[in-house]
Automatic annotation (TrEMBL):
A Pfam family annotated for this UniProt entry: Beta-lactamase
Protein name (Swiss-Prot/TrEMBL): CubicO group peptidase (Beta-lactamase class C family)
Native source organism of the sequence: Thalassotalea piscium
Taxonomy, superkingdom: Bacteria
Membrane spanning stretches: 7-27
Length: 341
């Protein structure tokens, strides 16, 4: 991108910020949180669109019942195509649940060790990351490695870059650690980029093939993919940033799935059917059972609510300004409605 275009984007961003302060102001989200709950979840998702979100998909699966879908707004705003329950969506960091599950399975079968270090698995990087000989696999999975997050680097742009590439990794090579290994928690996408490399190395093939064979296929998840390049783009929900006309769907930024597929996976992760007893014990020691995901144009929430034995997945295709706060409020209101029966 030229310097001229970058200047135009920055100036436009400043104007957009001013205009959007009122539309998605934090105080509006706070006020909305206390609004009376509507009679139905469908009314709630319709209200969310009326308040400014472009499109929303909610999947609710309670106990052993069939999943229910609630949609509103646009699948594609420019073409006026309404949202569809079976739309594909970029689930971003929710994908870490799948990769952490793969790590647990590989540790259980002895292919990986949680105590081995980054330097042992990837010796070529031993001199490129501070404390590489002290950072264990366990620390990487649980975000306690201190590895700097490449998506926080000034050279990374969500609006321009794919994720998980060698170019991403190069941004943080030979940079100081955020903290000493295991002395703190620091969410870092670099951890999972490197975990992918480590799994590739021990397997001798792409770890996504392992995830396909050991997780997706057994759960019959036929609508989960590793890249936008694997899908029919017309089935992928468009993604928007407040105030910009651009559709960010073409950027390749990780996992793509339907809400139902994510819900089925999350149920299996939480009820233990995804794992053997040994794998379950390992997973419990390394990672979480719910996640959110954010890439430009897409925000997703995947949680299991044990008190009501219900999985709730929410996809929103509008980000920027305070839409994340508002989207979380919408999600919380839906869970409140479900809790009330």
């Amino acid at each position: 991108m030229s310097n001229k275009n970058k200047i135009i984007i920055r100036v436009t961003a400043a104007i957009v910020t001013v205009v959007s302060i009122y539309i998605f102001a934090p105080w509006k989200a706070a006020v909305y949180y206390f609004y009376p709950l509507p009679a139905t979840i469908q009314e709630q998702v319709d209200n969310a669109v009326n308040w400014g979100l472009d499109g929303i998909i909610v999947y609710v699966q309670k106990q052993d019942q069939e999943g229910q879908f609630y949609t509103s707004g646009w699948h594609n705003r420019d073409k006026k195509i309404p949202t569809a329950p079976d739309a594909l969506f970029k689930i971003a960091s929710i994908g870490k649940l799948y990769r952490a599950s793969a790590v647990a399975k590989l540790v259980a079968r002895g292919d990986l060790s949680l105590d081995k270090t980054l330097a042992e698995y990837l010796p070529a990087l031993a001199g490129r990351f501070e404390y590489a000989d002290k950072i264990t696999l366990h620390m990487m999975v649980s975000h306690r490695s201190g590895l700097p997050n490449y998506t926080d680097n000034e050279g990374f742009s969500w609006a321009e870059n794919t994720i998980g590439t060698e170019e991403n990794l190069a941004l943080v090579l030979d940079t100081p650690a955020d903290f000493k290994p295991d002395s703190d928690y620091g969410y870092s996408n670099t951890n999972y980029l490197l975990l992918g490399r480590i799994m590739d190395k021990v397997l001798g093939y792409d770890h996504n093939q392992f995830i396909q064979a050991e997780i997706l296929t057994p759960l019959n998840l036929q609508h989960t993919f590793f890249s936008v390049n694997e899908v029919d783009s017309s089935k992928l929900m468009s993604g928007y940033y407040v105030g910009y006309p651009d559709d960010f769907k073409a950027l390749d930024q990780g996992f793509v799935a339907t809400a139902e597929d994510v819900g089925i996976f999350l149920r299996a992760l939480n009820d233990g059917t995804l794992f053997t007893e040994k794998e379950q014990a390992i997973y419990m020691s390394i990672y979480v059972y719910e996640h959110t995901g954010w890439v430009i144009g897409y925000y997703s929430i995947a949680r299991y609510h044990k008190d009501i034995d219900t999985v709730v997945i929410q996809f929103v295709n509008t980000v920027g300004e305070n839409t994340l706060i508002f989207s979380n409020v919408v999600y919380d209101r839906i869970v409140k409605m479900l809790s009330k029966g």
